[in-house]
Amino acid sequence: MKPPFKGLDMETQLLVAAGAAVAAGCISCLESITAAAAAEEIDHKKLRVAAIIGQHVKDQPAGLMKSKADELLGTHLSAYKAAASCPRYDEAAVRKTGGTFTTTSLCGGG
User: Fold this and answer.
1) What is the 3-state secondary structure (H, E, C) of 25-52?
2) pLDDT bucket at 30, cuts 50 / 70 / 90
3) Are the C-beta atoms of 62 and 25 separated by less than 8 Å?
4) Which pTM does this prediction carry?
5) Is 75 within 8 Å of 93 (Cβ atoms)?
6) Are the CB atoms for 77 and 101 separated by under 8 Å?
7) How many CB atoms lie within 10 A of CB 92?
8) Where are the domains of the chain?
């Protein structure tokens, strides 16, 4: 396949695209890029590294925002891992923990 853009070889373009797809949260993009990379016989380990870098780039602003919210609002967001479901503020849990921020699920659970 001919690279769609001049200046970078096909492997580099697909690795950049894989990282960007992960950073953008575009599942269909990642699926098509992965298929194209397989067709080009690009090393799967390189794709994994590109995906990890993309996720790292995506996560950095969120981490900085958590730290700033903690500083300005006293939320303790940095102490919590990302929720796997829909979080909400749980006043009862805050009372039980003496004012510590917690989340619980609105999406069919806890």
Assistant:
1) CCHHHHHHHHHHHHHCCCCHHHHHHHHH
2) very high
3) no
4) 0.65
5) no
6) yes
7) 9
8) 10-75, 80-110
Tokens at residue 97, please?
A: 């923990």
Which pLDDT value is given to residue 102?
Answer: 46
Alpha-carbon distance of 54 to 110, in angstroms, equals: 31
Q: Which residues of 4-30 are buried (b: 16+ CB within 10 A; e: fewer)?
A: eeeeeebbebbbbbbbbbbbeeeeeeb
pLDDT, average across residues 60-67: 91
Alpha-carbon gap, residue 73 to 94, rounded angstroms = 15
Residue with tokens 């580099």: 12
Sequence-distant (6+) residues with CB within 8 A of 42 are: 11, 14, 15
Tokens representing residue 60 in the block: 């950095």
